[in-house]
Amino acid sequence: MDVKLTTQPLLKSTEDAVAIFFLKDRIKTNEVIQKFPAELKTLLQAVIGECEFTAEADQVLPVHTKTDPRLILLVGMGDKAKFTTERMRLALSSAIKNANNFNAKNLAVSITAPDLDAKEVVMALAETAHLATYRFDKYKSEKKPFKIQSLVLADAPEKDFKSLTSALETGNVLGSLARETRELVNTPPDVCTPQYFADYAIKLGKEYGFKVTVFDKNELQKMNMQGILHVGAGGSNPPYLVIAEYKNGKGKKIAFVGKGVCFDSGGLDIKPASGMDTMKMDKAGACIVLNTIAGCAKLGLKGNFMAIMPMVENMPGNSAYKPGELIVTRSKKTIEVLNTDAEGRVILSDALFYASEQKPDYIIDIATLTGACIVALGNNVAGLLGNNQEILSKIKAAAAKRYERVWELPMDEDYYEMIKSEYGDVKNVVSNMPGGGAGTITAAKFLEVFVNSTPWAHIDIAGPAWALQEKGYFSSGATGFGLRLLLQTAIDLSS
Ligand code: BES
Ligand code: ZN
Ligand code: ZN
């Protein structure tokens, strides 16, 4: 999708379709429509009256004209009191889908929005253009590609054109990398094996200009990465540890860590059939942190950014790791395995400890870690936990900007008591008996053991990583949730 910014007024654009966004109680005073020629203004006002267009959120009224633009979409954004940038994202995704259904190739919208920062609006509209035109159709023999190919953002004030152009570029990077993330997460587990992911990372590093190092099984042995090796033992595709680095001048050193389970069958503690197909999403964390580094490179952010991605498949093979095993991790701390399906924290133990050894200012990990997080927060909000309020508040601020919502959960010491092991240092589940509670928190307390007091935040995306059905600018399947959040965090930390 090509997104352009122009100082021209909306109607001057020669696009096939134009969308006008309306707030509920401001239909008559809409600023964009005021600038239209009298004849068109009268026509639109008549249609609004006749069709009872009330500008409810997501209401779309198509108006076909005899002159250019041939299609004018009136799009509702609901009440002014509830108006946010996210409402504009949703209005644009409705407009894009409708324009596409009417076979329009190009769409134009105005960036004029009451009481919102123009840069935020441009960034949000640009990212939405990419997000709303993605679907996973690589394996469809008959594809229905989006007909719509470009979006024009009109009415940019002349004096702000330069700063808005840079907001547009950032929006384009956020949106297009979220799409790349979705495509990689959606890639089936027979294709996207740990080895495929490592090759993909090398390719991406060459394309964007960042360094990629890949450690194979033999090297992992030498590095005492027994957490990664144990979980990866049951799969016929061997485990890898992939590191991506982008350094540019002086600045904060940030280590991003992403859970990379290419397929989570549960291992010997095998999962039930229902929902197992979605477990190719268990590599979402790794896909996000890899694309975050690509974004840092593309935007030329100042700082030292690295992504640490332990890649495995969790399978019940002949040599699979077993309940009752005691794993001596790279940190020398030991893990008692009580359930092979709680594998994410086991591979992250080595990855987080390795991250702490790089002496970063912050570690941020992201993982589809616990089903309990879906119980607590549902499918639209990620769990946020950590040991340092400074980095947690940076993440909350970035989450608000990109509307990738997070909610902080407590990390009190009594939760740690729940994961102390009888025979080792920590156990990977509290108990196999249902009803223990606090599964997301106890998982985070487990991870905390391995960060070695480095300021750290953990984001549990088990809920929002995947959409069972199309909604707003998400198609069904991988959402890419977390990529925009982490890239925005990197942007904020670099300035
Ligand atoms: N990958 C899953 C968590 C998950 C569940 C992600 C649903 C996305 C959607 C994780 O490895 C897992 O299986 N966790 C177990 C932990 C339990 C055994 C303590 C879970 O959540 O049931
Ligand atoms: Zn699991
Ligand atoms: Zn998992």
Report on the structure:
With 495 residues, the protein is α/β, with parallel strands linked by helices. The chain is built from 15 helices and 20 strands. A hairpin with a 6-residue loop joins strand 3 and strand 4 (71-76). Helix 4 runs parallel beside helix 5, helix 8 packs antiparallel against helix 10 and helix 9 packs parallel to helix 15 (483-494). The chain is elongated and about 80 Å long. Bound molecules: ligand BES and zinc ion (2 copies). One zinc ion (ZN) is lined by residues 261, 264, 282, 343-344.
- Give the count of helical stretches: 15
- Rg measurement, Å: 24 Å
Strand content: 15-25%
Bound molecule types? ligand BES, zinc ion
Q: Main sheet?
A: 9 strands, mixed
Mean pLDDT: 97
The dominant shape is elongated
Tell how many strands the DSSP assignment holds: 20
> What distance lies between the first and last C-alpha atoms, to the nearest angstrom?
28 Å
Ranges where pLDDT stays below 50 over 5 or more residues in a row are none
The class by helix and strand makeup works out as alpha/beta
Helix content: 25-40%
